[in-house]
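pipeline: protein-struct stage 2 | run 1193 | Acyl-CoA dehydrogenase
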Amino acid sequence: MSDTQQQEQQMIADSVRRWATQTSSPAQREASAAHNDGCPPERWGEIAEMGWLAFPIPAEDEGLGGSLEDLCVLAEELGRALLIEPFVANAIVASHLMVQTAEGALRSQWLGDLASGQKRMAFAMWEPQCEGLVMPANATAQQTPDGFAISGAKGLSPGLAGADALLLVARIADDDYGLFFVNADAAGLTLGNQRLYDGRHAASLQLEKSPATLLRKAPWAQMQVLVQSAIDRGIIAHCAETAGAASVALATTIEYVKTRKQFGRSISSNQVVQHRLVDLYVEVQELKALWRYVANEPSPGNVSALAIRCIDVARHVWEETLQLHGAIGMTEEYELGEYLRRLALATSLYGGAAVHHERLAALSFKAGYA
């Protein structure tokens, strides 16, 4: 990384941290989580005003043309602030798919609005009961005089509720699949929104002859690559976001053990406690270095290896920080509890360890490594 890039990314990180210090609090996060779709329009507007939604959009489409690493710098700082709004799912995954596939009037109408925050878009990533796996779509698309009509279901995906439009994959015929654009208010479309463990929202999707516009048609093998590459960007950003949350959980614990006393002295004076905290620090720093590497080398194997390590670190951090705090760590009133819930959900939001181990094994067999 050049000195200029490093300085620019530090400026990005500093701007997010200042914004979070001024606008983020437990009360604000609870207000966002309690909103119908977990994303109050005024809060999304604040994020847009900072220019962050324009990062994934090319400059020629009214965006800023930021790199994936730039986006992950943003995500890490937003993870520190425990952002409830679906920045990764909407601004990184869905926006990337639109950039890759939208053409003509749809592109000119939507990319600028996504960059300015006037519109929000989400991608229905998973099939029912297959969250974390990119599987052939069960939903079907029938051609009509006006385009296509889609029927079927999609599994629980982050960021769907409240979006102005949705992207999804449906089978057209045999091995022909399409990536479709569907207005959120389309006839026959029903969302099943849920508030997740850490306050963020995800929704399942049901469609019954819902009108849709075809963005890209391809055999499943090619469609899978297109979709997985977009989701992989989300996984990398999710890992950066998790690294940010883990950093704060660790820092909070370091301060706490300095004040918690047993047998007349702070537990931070115990060498065993010091070693445990040092181990956590090394793991969190390793995760930060890994997401930066993978953001610049986002091969499928690298992404799954990063996801596996992220899950391990998230689990270790929340287990150790909770144990060092005791029961207070899980209380609603104590801020660490929010970070523990975020880290716990991080172990499954974009696929659990088994999903990524299976994917990594399949890639290894395909490459002839096993």
